[in-house]
Structures are given as C-alpha cells and as structure tokens.
Amino acid sequence: MASSKPTSGKKSLNTVTLLFKLPYYTQWGQSLLIAGSEPALGSWNVKQGLSLTPVHQDIELFWCGRVSVAAGFTSEYKYYVVDDNKNVLRFESGEKRKLVLPEGVQDGDVIEIRDWWQDASDALFLRSAFKNVIFNDTEGVKKELQSVPVNKSLDSEDIVVQFVISCPRLVSGSTVVVTGSNPQLGRWQVQDGVKLSYVGGSMWKANCVLRKSEFPVKYKYCQISQAGNPSLELGPNREVDIDLSSPKQSRYVVLSDGALRDAPWRGAGVAVPVFSIRSDEDLGVGEFLDLKLLVDWAVNSGFHLVQLLPINDTSVHGMWWDSYPYSSLSVFALHPLYLRVQALSDAIPADVKEEIQQAKKHLDKKDVDYEASLSTKMSIARKIFNLEKDKVLNSSSFKQFLSENEEWLKPYAAFCFLRDFFETSDHSQWGRFSEFSKEKLEKLISEGTLHHDVIRFHYYVQYHLYMQLSEAGAYARKKKVILKGDLPIGVDRNSVDTWVYPTLFRMNTATGAPPDYFDKNGQNWGFPTYNWEEMSKDNYGWWRARLTQMAKYFTAYRIDHILGFFRIWELPDHAATGLVGKFRPSIPLSQEELLSEGLWDFDRMSRPYIRQEILEEKFGSFWTVIAANFLNEYQKHCYEFKEDCNTEKKIIAKIKTSPEKSLWLEKEDSIRRGLFDLIQNIVLIRDPEDPTKFYPRFNLEDTSSFRDLDEHSKNVLRRLYYDYYFARQENMWRQNALKTLPVLLNSSDMLACGEDLGLIPACVHPVMQELGLIGLRIQRMPSEPNLEFGIPSQYSYMTVCAPSCHDCSTLRAWWEEDEGRRSRFYKTVVGSDEEPPSRCTPEVVHFIVQQHFDAPSMWAIFPLQDLLALKDKYTTRPAPEETINDPTNPKHYWRFRVHVTLESLLDDKDIQATIKDLVTSSGRAFPGKVEGADESREKLSKVQLNGKA
C-alpha cells in the first residue's frame, strides 16, 4: 500500500489533495474525524485521525477535511463521532471504506470525496444471511472485476465525476447504470446512461467527464435486468454541484452514494425448536438432519428463514430438567439429543439396526421423553463408536475438527467425564479437580488413562453433531433459506464455562428479569451474572469465540434478552424468585442521599416488615403456627425470620424438611407463597457488598411496608423509585451496551436480532437502531404503554413481528383462554361489535397472521403451531398442549412435539399453498419462483370472521 509520505532523496513523489465532505448533524460537544489504515489518516489510531470541520451550506451541515497524500495513495477508513477529547462516541457501520484514487490524477490535483454516513441498517444486506444465502447467486453472474478508467484527456473545463453505488440486492444477471439531466448521462434516457462496472464487494463504479458549465447535475441509478427491463431507484433525484468560486477547484469528484434506493426488502420465516419437530426417522425428538425436511417445507411455503431455539448441550442434571434449552452446560458443544444415530456409520450391524427400529416405535410419543430419548441415543452411539472408533478418529476430517475445536472440546469432554464420575456437575464437589488448570486437563485426557475411550466418545459425538448440523446448514444455504440460531443470555452455574473461566462470572449472584408480562413475581433463571470488567480485558474474547462458533452453522441469530447487555436483573444466589433484585450496573441510592431527603430508618425500610396484624391477615388462625416455626418476636407484635429460614431458598428447604411439616402438608404452596410475601415485604434492598448503598424494591408501593410509612417518606420513595428505574441509569446503560454489543456484532457476519421484550429502558431502542439490531414485536405485549394490543401496520421496519413466541401461549390458546380479552381484541383490532367466536377458527388465525404478513417489519416469523392453525385438520389437539414454555414455572418441562411429521406436512400441498399465497400477496420475498400464486388478495370480512360466510 502506498505511503502518503514523500520518499527520501531530492525528488518528492507527486502529491494530491484529498478533500473529504460528509453531511452529518451532531450534538453540542461532538465532532467528526476520519481514521484509516495509513499514517495520513492515523493508522487506525482515532486520536491521530484527520479532524473534520463543520461547514454550513444552505440548510445542510457538512463536515470537511483536507489532507495531502501521494498520487498513488490507497487506504481503508471510517468516520467517527468523538467528544472534545477525541473519545469515540459512535462510528459508522458496515465494512471499512476502501479509497482508491481515480486513474489519471496528477501532481497538484484536488480529489473531492463526498461520502454518506453508513448507517447500520444500510450494512445489513452485507451480512451473510443476505450475501451468502438470499442473494448468493448475484456474485457469480457479475462480470470480472473491472478498472474504471477515464477515457479522454482533460482540459481546464473538465471535471471527472466518479459514481460509486452499493447494490447488495441486485437481481441475478442485472447491470447498473446512472442516468441524469445532462447529455453525458443520457438526458434521463436509461439506455443512453453511463454503465457502471462491478468492482467487488457489491460495489459498482463509473467515471464520467463533465464540463463545469453543466453543473449542477441531477441523476439517479437504475437497475437493468437480464431481460433488459429498467428499474429506476426510488426517492428524489440525486444532485451534484461544484464550487466554481473556489481557488483550488476539485478536478475529481468521487460520489460515494451509499446504497441503491430500492423498496424495503421484507421476508418471512417459521420458528420451531429442533426438539419439537417430528419425522419418520427420529428417535422421539427432532434431529439436526430433520432440518433438511423443514427447509424443504419452508421453501414450498414461500419462506426463507427457519428459526430455532438454543441447541447447545444442557446436560447438567442428568434428568428432564435439562430440557431447558437456555441453561447451557457448554456454550460451544452441541446437544447430543439432536444426533441421528442411523447416520453415524454406513455399516451398522443388523442387531443395532433392529434396536434402532424398536426405539423408534417405543419413543414415538405425543411429547418428548427427554431422558429416554437421550439415553437410548447414547447407548446406541456407544455401540457404533466401539465398532468404528479407530477408523473415524484417525480420519483426516476428524483430525481437522479436533484441531479447530480443541480449545473448547477437550475441556468439555473432561467435564463430562468428571460429571459422570462424581455424579454431579457441581464442580466445587470435584476435589482437586474443582479448580481447572491446563496441566490437570492434559492428564485427564491423555492416552494412557483407563477412561481415555470415554473422553474420545465425547469427541466422537460432537464430531458427528458438527457434521450433521453442518450438512443441514449447507442444505439451507443452497435452498436460499437462512438458518437462525439463538444466543442465550446466560450459562448454567455448573457448566464447563464457569469451570474453565471462573473469573468471567459473579458466582454469588443469579440473573433473571423483573416482574413483567410473563410473570408478576419476576423470573429467576439461576445463571451467574457476568463479570464484564474481567471480560473486557481481552476484548470479550469468550463472547467473540461463541459467535465465531455459531457462525459455522447459522447465518442469523437472536440475542436472547438483549436488555442484559445494557443491564441485568441481578439477584442474590439465595433467592428463589425474581422479585427482590437490582439492576447491574446501576447507580444506587446512597445513605447520604437518603438522609438528605429525610429518610433515616434504614433497618425499618430494608428488613422484612412483619407485624402481628399482617400475619393474622395472611394466615388467619394458623398465624401462630407460622410464627412459632419460622419467626422470632424481637419486640412486641414485631417479628423477624429465624436464621434457618431467612432467605427464600431456606424457606423452601425448611417447609420440606421441618419436623413440623405435617402441620402444613395440605397447605404447603400457600404457606410458601405467604412466607415469600413476608420476606419480600421491604421497600429498600441493602447492597450486600456495601451496606451504605440501597436499591428501591420493584413495585414497592404494593407492599404493606410502604403503606405503613408516613406520607413524606412515601412521596420521597415514589420519586426515588421512578428516578432509579426510569431516569438516572439511562446514560450508564447506553454506554454499557455500546461497549459490549459492537463486539458481538463484529465477531461474525451473521444477521443479528435482539429479543427486546419486558421492561424496556428508554436508551434501548435508539442503541439498537444505531447498531442495526432488529427488534421483536409481539402483538399481545406491545411496547407502547397505552395499548393492550400492538398494531402491526405501525411497526417500524427494523423489527421482527410475530403473533406469539416460544415464551407465551400459542395464538389458539391465547384466543381461547380469556373471553374478555378476546372480545376487546375483536372490537379494537378486528373492528367488530359482534360476539367473537369462542374457538380460534382458521378464519381468525388467517386474519391475525395476515396482519403480520402485511406489516412493514423486515421480518414476519411465525411459530409453526400458529401457521398450522390455518387448517382445521391441525387443530384437533387441545391448544394449551402446544405451548413450548411456561415462564412462570422455573422447572417447566420443555417437551412439546408437533403432532404431524415433516413428511406429512410436505405431502400436504394445501397448507403450503395457503401460506405461500399469504407470503406472495403481502409482497414478502421468497426463494424461487411461486407457481400459480394469486397476486391479488381478498381481505377477510367480518362476516367471514364470524363464521357466517
């Protein structure tokens, strides 16, 4: 790469002046600069970059900067917004810009480079989901990379304008031209415009020599299809002008015009967990190779996205509790549950084949039998492993897999061995192996040990899982279907990751969510919170490795609970519910602040407020039994919990194990709930690490502790509560997210979506927009506080819309479970005063699903259950049985199976045609050509919805 500095000696290189010009509006105290790969642009050191100066031109604000460089100068660069100390506040998205000067520049020339700020949304179509899947055939049909010469000698009246446009969504076989108002651009006749050359990376360029007298020039870009049909870009005319009064007139103008303006691209997809799909080949649970059939069904239905739940190994407890897919044993290892044992070998013995056939029949149940399916598969896999281990483990493909994955695979295999040997995943119980070290690991996995084949078996299973999922992923890409994964926010506290990287986690805490739509008591997921300060020391290497691993299989992913990257709801590890938590990070209420507000009785506000009248009200005549077993009376009519039950987990243990438990056998649940209400009856939470800091309890006004305070204290606490939850943290949380999320997004080229449901801080959506993160909209839980039901037609483009998701009831169940809500929906959304049908008929489903297809959202993604409800034949099962997760139950069994096989769904042309018609008529794109699709669509009438058609 050419240097911008002159060479040593008597004669200098020819030099030219670069004049950068970018329209951008900043806030007070902000400025722009350019940092790039060459010394003239700071060698990527932002503080040494080229500072820009604001210049007003009419009503626009431009940021301009000059630098002298050698005539052969090339560089990569980006624009940055900085504060007065040149600290980066934000930087533009997308790939690095590549500056290559036009051919023919001479000593003393001025090259004006007019750029547009690259928004994150503009860069989305350069992500692998689009580049390598949806539009993966465009690269192959483009011509050889071409240079863009100037084809005539220049005189003093000539200006060379270089047109540069990004066309990531170019239709196969198309070309690009620029046409405009002057003769050289064809006077708006597309066939006479200037044809652009493809220069790589979805970029097209053309040089055009214009006379000074012809400016200003209006122009537009145009796609011309392989058949010769022109399609002019949308929006107003573009315009280029020059400053004829400038003493240093630009001889070259580079118009870096961003992306070709096309209609918003909108896609559709189906969401279903791998474990829920059913096929003729599975052993009681969906398998990775079943995804090929699901992809075929998606294509036939007009979709090009399949969304899954997490697929990592969750084998922590060795029982059905491990069906919870968000509690990873390893964030790198795949779950053995999804292995297809029939595909392990081409030479499976007859007796093993017969065992597989018998297992198919035995495990073909209504729901997943997690334990039976997993143990059966592992038993069969071990038999095949013992027959072919040397052949497979000595193969070149396995050796390559081991080499590329040993950093996580070896600790994972050792962990699984120790878990089974000690009969617990709690690595604190492993004696000398409790603390991980590479030396101990190498001894554990060495060839000379008696258990070496156990270690190798885990390698073997992970290798085949990798091969099978890779096969499914390659098949999806070939069919132009995006495979979308899920990135859980946490890991199990007894996991490989907490064993190997203990300093990355705060092991004395748990994560969850404050009370919301899903659970009025909040959620406690049990994962340890992250030590972000420690993670930052190697630039979040653990996260970057996770995303790199995911990108081997997926081209898009969902960030679970994206709020956790702004702040997490942190609970003490002794909590069982999610109610009495605090945000981390957050600015607490200091003791000094509370004293200045006239609040001084900190014990009264931060310890459980338990009075005799409260006990009588809650437990009736049974209150004396409760007091005798669980409480001490520290002063007249005032009580506190005994030491052996002064936390939620201790309460649970004592209720179950107390010698007096016979007294409450029939009331165990209500006793536990009542005691939880007592221990949560506080208004301030004292920080366990600093007793002078406090946090307002969520919904503190609901407590009797709050109601019994004086009016002054109530008013102060109301104000401080609102400030803590809705004001004082916003800037901190924004900065926190801008440290961590860009690392994730830049770790791979997958398309990223964020699950942004729940209590949403004001900073979240602006940050997501700035980073190009696609949000989630569920109609029944709108983000607007004044609405009961979301309005899909008003969703923003950068969203995924869906009628339901795995964390709530299906569309059918939601419709049928609440008569009052159903009537309100029918009146406000459907627009009918008539009585709605009590059953969620296919007509009702069609109306709601169509609303989402028609929404402006970039993606409409539907749970498979909601799509199948479009046909009566698939609604024979009671609707509540189709729910995947119950967030109110921390021990929910994740076991839902679709009651029809993928083979049967592929044979059902009617359901596929129904869905494809919805895709087509809504204008959402789909892979391949739709045969016989009805381009027009009749809106559902209220009569039809009422079942009176």
Structure explained in plain terms:
Residues 10-118, 153-267 form the CBM20 domain. Pfam families: CBM_20 (PF00686), Glyco_hydro_77 (PF02446). It is an enzyme of class 2 (transferase). One of its GO terms (cellular component) is cytoplasm. It is a single chain. The strands form 8 sheets. Strands 4-5-1-9-18-10-14-13 form an 8-stranded mixed beta sheet, with no helix packed on it. By secondary structure, the chain is α/β, with parallel strands linked by helices. The model is unreliable at 1-11, 139-144 and 928-949 (pLDDT under 50). Helix 6 crosses helix 9 and helix 7 crosses helix 9. It is built from 29 helices and 38 strands.
Annotate the secondary structure layout:
Blueprint: E1 15-23, E2 31-36, E3 50-51, E4 53-57, E5 60-70, E6 74-82, E7 88-91, E8 97-100, E9 110-114, H1 120-123, H2 128-134, H3 138-141, E10 158-166, E11 175-180, E12 194-195, E13 197-200, E14 203-211, E15 217-224, E16 230-232, E17 238-240, E18 252-259, E19 267-271, H4 291-300, E20 305-307, H5 350-363, H6 370-393, H7 396-422, H8 438-445, H9 452-478, E21 482-487, H10 496-500, E22 505-506, E23 509-513, E24 523-524, E25 529-530, H11 532-535, H12 541-550, E26 556-559, E27 568-572, E28 582-584, E29 589-590, H13 591-596, H14 602-606, E30 610-611, H15 612-619, H16 623-630, E31 631-635, E32 638-641, H17 648-657, H18 668-679, E33 684-686, E34 693-696, H19 704-707, H20 711-726, H21 730-746, E35 751-754, H22 764-771, E36 775-778, E37 799-802, H23 811-817, H24 819-830, H25 842-854, E38 859-863, H26 864-868, H27 902-907, H28 909-921, H29 942-945
Helix pairs in contact: 5-6, 6-9, 7-9, 15-16, 17-18
InterPro entries: Carb-bd-like_fold (IPR013784), CBM20 (IPR002044), CBM20_DPE2_1 (IPR034840), CBM20_DPE2_2 (IPR034841), GH (IPR017853), Glyco_hydro_77 (IPR003385), Ig-like_fold (IPR013783)
Subcellular location: Cytoplasm
Catalytic activity: Transfers a segment of a (1->4)-alpha-D-glucan to a new position in an acceptor, which may be glucose or a (1->4)-alpha-D-glucan
